[in-house]
Structure formats: C-alpha cells, structure tokens
Amino acid sequence: MGLIFIRTVIIFITLLIVMRLMGKRQIGEMQPYELVVTLIISELAGIPMADPSTPLLYGVMAILAVFLLHQIVCLLDLNFKPAKAIVSGVPSVLLNKNGIDDAELKKNSLDVSDLIESLRTEGYFSLDAVDYALYEAEGTFSALPKPNYEQLQNSLPVILVNEGKFDEKNLALTKRDRQYYLDVLKKQGCNKLKRILVMTVDGNGKVYLQEKGTKYKVFDLNWEETLW
Amino acid sequence: MVKTLVSIAITLGLIIGASCFEIYYVKSTFDLLTQVLLTLHDKTEAQTATFEDGTAVRQLWEEKKETLQIWLPHTAIQEVDYQLYEAVGFICVRDYKNALPKLEVVLGMCENIPQAYSLGIENIF
To answer: How many other CB atoms sit within 10 Å of the CB of residue B51?
Structure first.
C-alpha cells in the first residue's frame, strides 16, 4: 500500500504540473489542484469497487493519499504566498487603461478575439468600455468597467483587423472596402497593417484601434448612416 | 488551519501505519509459508511426503489466504492456490516427480509476491 501511496503522489504531482503548464484555459472555474483531485478521485473510487480481484484497501489508500495531498496543497495555498503562485497560478491583467496587453495575452495562450468574446460574456461589448480585464487563476474573466460604460457601447463592435489581418466577413458588413480602412489607418499614422493588434468598428462608425506596444485610440469615422 | 493540520497528521499516520503493517504482515506470512514449503519440498525430494503433510500445508495456506486477500490482489493469491493444490494432489498419489516442480513454482512465488508489492523503484514505476 506504500506503493499505492507513492504512485498516487507521483500521478497527482504530474497531473498538477501538466495542468499548470496547459494554462488557465484548461481549468475553467477550478483551481488546478482541485481539477486534478476531481480527475483522479472518481477513477480511484471506481476501479476497486468494480473489480473484486483488487483489494478495496488499494482504493481507500489511494483516496487517502489524494486527500492528504489536497490538504497539504490547501495549507500551502492559504499560508504561503509563493507556493500559492506556483500551485494555483496568479491572475493576469489582459487589458488595462492603455489597452490590450499583447504580451500577457500570448503568455496565456489567448488571442484578441478570445478576449473580446470573454468580455462579451461578462456584458462588455466594447473594448473601450473597460478599464481593466483580468484573467483569473482559475480560468475565468473579470472586468472593471469605466463609470459611463453603458453609453460607450450603444452598437455592437466587430473586429475588422485582428493581429494584422483583415476579417473579410466583417469588412463586407461595414459596406466599405479594404482601401477605405487602409486610408483611415494611414491618417492615424499606421502605415503597416502588421503592426495593428486590433481594430474594431461598431455600427455608428466608432473605431477602437490599437497598435502593438502602444496605447489604444478611439475615434469616429463620421458615417452618415447607422449600419447596425 | 488547526483542523487541516490535524487531518494531515491523522491521514499520514493511517497511511504510514497501514503501509508498514502491510509490508510486515505480507513478508512474515510468506516467510512462514516458505519455511513450511521447504520442509515439504525436502520430504518430497526424499519421497517421504505423505497425504497428511500436503493437506497440513494446504490448510495453513487456506488460513493465511483469507487475511492476505485484504492486502494483495486476488489474482496473485489464485496463482499460489492453483500451483499448491496441484502439488498437494501429486503428493497425495505419491507422484513426487511431478510434485517437485510445482513446489518449486510455489516457493518462487512466495519469494516474488512480497517483493512485487513492496516499496521499490522497480515497483513504483
């Protein structure tokens, strides 16, 4: 049974490391160690229960080992800050008052559309409606909106340029061609499309533009009509 | 925090206690069985083993088997069962030539089974 204990410890630690390496996307509302416990505990309980040739004590020992590890990790999580960061990870600030943090986005294996999608589920449809957006350690998003955020999102913004590439479907939606937007970008001092991290436009012609490594800009295209 | 520490101490105590007892119990049981089997083996080699000798060993195994099943997978115990019953069967009809290899197998198992479930790098991985 000592053997079962050591083997369980090895599997637990291996799974925990793998979960941490996979990143927050794989977790979803659980701490990495909680997910590891959930993953292995059902198997541990099921095998000795269904197989009469395996002593029940093997399952009991493995469950006790998981419980022990869980308690140790909980203890570290609550009382030792450096251990908490290693075991559970830390929140990432993906969007701040300067706009999207491209480096943090990449560090968390996300792209701009993932961020926009996650903000939408939180009720924020426009990137400029939010002062801060955080990717929590357990894989959920939180956002701190601007005080007047409701006035800033009166039409649904769509992504026109994502990491230097035009979205042709959304381009057609705005009833304007690529050249029109290239001219707009030129006026804003952006000569290289590849340098654009994100450019969104809403139905009223309000543009959110951010070049890589710079602060975002919001400006109006002064469209005569409202497109959507 | 106190509750967590107490639960850690109790669980650790249970795990270490159960593991130590398992190692001790399995090893001592198979050591005893090995001694008895060696005697039977010597008698079989000398062609003096009787039906009573064989059934006495089988009875001892039957007693120990019940507790061993708590600690070891039943498949390992069934293997010993099979080989020992055959050996005793041959001894009963005084077929010592066929009984000896069977006893050798059981002796080998008595040596290998405790090793296979003990703490060791080869068993962990």
So the answer is: 12
